[in-house]
Amino acid sequence: xxxxxxxxxxxxxxxxxxxxxxxxxxxxxxxxxxxxxxxxxxxxxxxxxxxxxxxxxxxxxxxxxxxxxxxxxxxxxxxxxxxxxxxxxxxxxxxxxxxxxxxxxxxxxxxxxxxxxxxxxxxxxxxxxxxxxxxxxxxxxxxxxxxxxxxxxxxxxxxxxxxxxxxxxxxxxxxxxxxxxxxxxxxxxxxxxxxxxxxxxxxxxxxxxxxxxxxxxxxxxxxxxxxxxxxxxxxxxxxxxxxxxxxxxxxxxxxxxxxxxxxxxxxxxxxxxxxxxxxxxxxxxxxxxxxxxxxxxxxxxxxxxxxxxxxxxxxxxxxx
Length: 320
Description:
Helix content: 40-55%
CATH class of the largest domain: Alpha Beta
Radius of gyration: 25 Å
Largest sheet: 8 strands, mixed
Number of domains: 2
CATH architecture of the largest domain: Alpha-Beta Complex
Structural class: alpha/beta
Number of helices: 11
Strand content: 15-25%
Distance between the termini: 32 Å
CATH topology of the largest domain: Spore Coat Polysaccharide Biosynthesis Protein SpsA, Chain A
Number of strands: 8
Strand order of the largest sheet: 7-5-6-4-1-2-3-8
Shape: elongated
């Protein structure tokens, strides 16, 4: 029996690019159906993340004009990861496999066929990995690759150059639903689930229209969220740094006592100020890192919902 596929696409203020990419998603879905690789009941699920433009109106129109499109809307803007999670959780009991992809057309849509082939070959998770970033500027390429290296160095288990373009089976999603944390970093969480996985490589394209919603500031925020959500290595580094500073301080105390009794001590403010600034800087950095973890604990203990779905296009259509 051919698997039912739901393509999950988060959308935030995508009124410029969605009319361009939606026919491409539809064309790929119809191609896979015609080739007999997926069920004719397969769908495209567009997730509106509290957009302030006409994105939701476009989603509703697409769902009215073509039964392949469905849409859900969050009650407010909650971020890319929350919207993607909402779509995946909405789809997990209604399909056999999902493919998540961004709306901007930068990820190669035609790579979906290779992902489905890998699933049919036995893989439960298929990661879409960018093998080239020639369309990116040097700064964008450098910061993006540094982002993945930093995550790996800090102990987060991530696939290099993989964002959120992936195939995930419903079996994996049902197990993934038991991950209840509020601070969601999907590209680092799915490797923790396990199951057989593989990668499909593709070339990254330029955004077809509109502007990127992931500037450097959001990329840094995502990196901090990923590290603090998946690893305690920064806390261990603070401990190691504290031991090193304590050792150096102990040596400094011995040296100052020896210099005092040898009558070689010189009264000076430069060394004192330098030591105070050094120790103070380390303390502030340490407090900041610990604060990040305490903030995560604070949010987790509240157990607030990770997403709230306000509207569904298929509910609207069933009421007519």
